[in-house]
Fold:
Amino acid sequence: MIKVIIADDEVKVCQLIFGLIDWKSMDMEVVGIANNGLETLELIRKLKPDIVITDIRMPGYDGLEVIKQGKQINKNIDFIIISGYGNFEYAQSAIKYGVSDYLLKPINKKELITTLNNIRKKHKQKTEHNTVQEQLRLSLQNNAEKLRSSFLNDLLEDVVNQINFNIDEVNKNYYFHFRPGIFEVLVVKLDYEHNESYGNIQILKQKISHILREKLISDCFDMEIYLKNSRVYCMLNYGEQNKKNIRKKLKCSLDEILVQKNLFCTKEVTIGRGEAVNDICQIKHSLKTAEWAIKQRLVEGTGKILEGFQPKVYSDLKVLFGDTIKKLETSLEILDKDGVVREIDFLRHQVLRKTNVFGQEVFNLVIDIFSLFLRSIRNFQFDVDKIEDSNSTFYLRADLCSSVWELFICLSESISKIIDVIIKEKIQADIKPILMAKEYIHQNYMHRVTLKEVSEFVGFNESYFSALFKKESGKNFTEYLSEIRINKAKELLKETNLSTIDICQTVGYNDLKHFTKTFKRLTGLKPHEYRKLYA
Structure:
């Protein structure tokens, strides 16, 4: 039996949860009920439960602290959060501690059963004392689920040979129950900040999966859901007679998904419907058009269901905005950040003014510009692998943008960030030989040090090194060397009884007259006057 504790400061809520479920049929037993955080932790220590259903706000220790300390007692406990709508922002913080799910008040029986079933399944897979028959059953179920998911993944990775398969083969090889009828792929696209909590997004995607399955399964011969990155893919197979029902229930699904989206403060959600096809061999086409519909949110907006289709002709935006692209290329080549930002901003306004533009072509344009930038910076012999925003990383960030405006901002910020890194490294590269030269001068100022000698030491020719030294130091080589020598002479005049001629030779001068003249030029005093004043 899987042991369960229910914790809520409202006795009626505890009674409700206890009465909603046929615990025995789920191979579960409620071993304790608590009405505050202190009692809950005491029961966790004493009864060692597998599942704790807890309110997020309770007297004593609140739900957050119960989860935190409970995980320290037993990291394998599955926590289910109960939260009122107004407390959900607070409940979000608990997700980072590894809770299994959250439930909004009032408790929905179906949702609670689904959550408990998921935990029971996971628990059974971990339990070592399962019977051989149970282990075999779970293994077969696992394999079937993996194979079903792999079909959608294979479609996404383009490794399925669509020409040579039929319904019977797919059903046999992937454990589906497809029948002749309509096949359709849906994509639910989440747009969120790229640094959004992974736990939040995973739970939201699970919620979306549950909503789609609950709403659509009764009208389908079969359906499969696959989660990847910021998308929930859903493949449907249904009869022609259920077409209207599917459309109606999909609208209801969107309404529920938008409520969940608002709870998680995710920026945007959009559903893309692929074109319905009558043959499983054409399912890739439905997937492609669903993805096309998702890109179309960039120009048509989010929070809605967009219908996919395959345009016969795309306008070539790179040709259409050729003059702007050329100016942008020039700015990219010379790392003119202000110029890049200016041209990208101008290009964005040009795209926004264009009518009948497709989201896919705008997205492709932005990806092409970023690729062009990466190619151009190779001319600076810069290691592109050092850049956080490599092509793949930028693609993922761009994919989280929900509008044309946001997409171009992402492009501008990503390129600007890389230009800043390159300029910084370039400055560091220029400064390094100057620092080496200064260190060499400090160690050898007492000897005859020449510009040629130091240039060879840092690996540059004299003229380039002389210009670079003055640029980075604000003074030429001779001035800097004289300053180092005279500063050392000042120290010796103040701190020792050495004669002026000895000090002159100690700091690298052979000519006393020249030393005295240089000393007076830099300090305003002759050496003996300086000693008399400061010694």
Observations:
- The mean pLDDT is 87.
- The chain has 22 helices and ten strands.
- The chain has four domains: 2-126, 135-307, 317-423, 445-534.
- Residues 377 and 490 are 49 Å apart (CA to CA).
